[in-house]
Design brief:
The chain is 39% helix and 13% strand. By secondary structure, it is of the alpha/beta class. It has a domain at 54-231 and 266-345: 3-Layer(aba) Sandwich (Rossmann fold). It has an eight-stranded mixed beta sheet, with helices on both faces. It is globular.
C-alpha cells in the first residue's frame, strides 16, 4: 500500500519529466518554423535571383539590322522633341572580329572601328548594358561620336550577350564580365594600341563593368561611366522596393547566386575598385531622373573617387533619365567625350600619354555634382 508521503514524492518526481517534454516540443516546433521560414526565404531568393540574373542573349530580339554603318535611335529619341539624328554617327568601315576570352570556353564577338590615323591612335572599348548588345543605340551612338573624333573603337559583347559565348545565360553584375573587358584590352594591345592610351566607356551594367576592369588593369588610362550602379546587392534591393517586394530578399538573391552559379556578386564592387584609379581619369554621367539606377549611385561613386584621390569629373543631368543624356544633348555629349578622352589618352598623332592637371568643380551642366539633399535635382531620400 502506497503512503501519502510516497504519492506526493512521486508527483514531484514526474513534474520535471513533463516540463522537459514540453520544452522539447517547443524547441522542435521552433526549429520546424525556422526551417519552414528559412526554406521560404531561400525559395523566394531563388525566384529573385532568376529574375535579375537572366540574360536574353540576342538583345531581346531588338535591332536585328543595326550595325555601326546604319542604325536608328530609340523610339523616344526619334520624336520631334528630341529628334536625334543617328546618321551623323554612322561608321561604314567597321569589321566583325572574334576575341579570345580570358576564361576557358569564352569567345567574344566585337565590332572593330579602326581610326584612319592608324594603329597608334588612342583606342576606347565600348561596353553595352544588361541584356543589350553592340547593336543597342546606347553603344552605337558614343562609338560613332568617338570614331568621328579620330579614336579607334572596339565595341565588345560581353559573355552571355549578343554573339559572344553563352556561359550559363546569367550575368554576374560585372564581377565576371570585367574579364571580358580585359580580354578586349589584350586584343587592342596586340593590334598595336599603346598601354596607357586605352580607355573604356560603358553604359549601365557596362559602366559598372568598365570601372571594375579599370580598377584591375593600369593599362586602362580613363573610364567613362554613364548610368552605373555601384553595388549589385543594393541595386537588387532597389529593384525589389520599386516593385513593392521586401528588400530583405536582396541578400538571399546574392547568396543564391553563389550557390546556383558560383558567382560572388560582391567579389568586385564599383566603390571598391574605383579606389584603384588614383592617378587616372574617371567621368561620371548620370540622369537625375533615372528611375532604373537612382542618381544616388552617381553621388556615391563621385564621393568615393574623390576620397581616393581619383581625377574625376561628373555630369549630373537634371532633365535626363537612364542613359538618355547622349540622345538629348548629343553635341555636348560628343564634345565632352572628346575633351575627356583627348586629355586622358592624347589624340591621333600624339606620342605617349598626356599629363593632365586635375579638374576643379563645375556646375551641373558643365561637370559638377549637385549637393546632396532635397535641392539636388532628382535626389531620392
Amino acid at each position: 500500500m502506497v503512503s501519502l508521503a510516497d504519492a506526493h514524492r512521486g508527483r514531484r518526481m514526474h513534474r520535471p519529466k513533463r516540463s522537459r517534454r514540453l520544452v522539447g516540443v517547443l524547441i522542435a516546433a521552433s526549429l520546424l518554423v525556422a526551417t519552414l521560414l528559412g526554406g521560404a526565404y531561400l525559395a523566394a531568393g531563388v525566384l529573385v535571383y532568376d529574375a535579375v540574373s537572366h540574360v536574353d542573349a540576342d538583345c531581346g530580339g531588338r535591332w536585328p539590322d543595326h550595325t555601326p554603318a546604319s542604325w536608328a535611335p530609340p523610339r523616344w529619341a526619334s520624336e520631334p522633341a528630341v529628334a536625334f539624328d543617328s546618321s551623323r554617327y554612322f561608321v561604314p568601315g567597321y569589321e566583325d572580329v572574334r576575341i579570345p576570352g580570358r576564361d576557358a570556353g569564352i569567345e567574344l564577338h566585337a565590332w572593330w572601328l579602326p581610326s584612319s590615323a592608324g594603329p597608334g591612335a588612342p583606342a576606347v572599348v565600348v561596353v553595352h548594358g544588361l541584356r543589350d548588345c553592340a547593336r543597342h543605340p546606347e553603344s552605337l551612338a558614343p562609338a560613332g561620336m568617338l570614331h568621328r573624333r579620330g579614336y579607334s573603337v572596339l565595341m565588345i559583347e560581353l559573355r552571355d550577350h549578343g554573339g559572344s559565348s553563352i556561359e550559363d545565360g546569367r550575368h554576374a553584375g560585372g564581377t565576371e564580365e570585367y574579364r571580358d573587358v580585359l580580354a578586349a584590352v589584350d586584343w587592342l594591345i596586340e593590334q598595336g594600341a599603346t598601354p596607357g592610351r586605352v580607355g573604356v566607356l560603358g553604359t549601365s551594367l557596362g559602366a559598372s563593368t568598365a570601372i571594375i576592369a579599370a580598377g584591375q588593369d593600369e593599362r586602362i588610362a580613363a573610364a567613362w561611366s554613364d548610368s552605373a550602379y555601384v553595388d549589385m546587392e543594393r541595386k537588387i534591393a532597389e529593384e525589389l522596393e520599386a516593385r513593392g517586394y521586401p528588400v530583405i530578399l536582396a541578400p538571399a538573391a546574392t547568396l543564391l547566386a553563389l550557390v546556383i552559379s558560383g558567382d560572388d556578386l560582391q567579389a568586385h564592387t564599383v566603390l571598391g575598385e574605383v579606389a584603384h584609379l588614383e592617378g587616372r581619369r574617371l567621368a561620371v554621367i548620370h540622369g537625375a531622373l533615372d528611375a532604373s539606377t537612382y542618381v544616388t549611385h552617381a553621388y556615391d561613386l563621385v564621393d568615393a573617387a574623390r576620397a581616393a584621390g581619383v581625377d574625376v569629373e561628373a555630369w549630373i543631368e537634371p532633365e535626363a533619365g537612364h542613359v538618355q543624356t547622349m540622345f538629348r544633348w548629343p553635341a555636348e555629349y560628343e564634345q565632352r567625350l572628346d575633351a575627356f578622352f583627348g586629355s586622358a589618352l592624347g589624340r591621333a598623332g600624339d606620342r605617349g600619354r598626356p599629363t593632365v592637371p586635375r579638374s576643379g568643380p563645375r556646375d551641373p551642366r558643365s561637370g559638377s555634382v549637385p549637393a546632396r539633399g532635397s535641392d539636388a535635382p532628382g535626389h531620392r531620400r
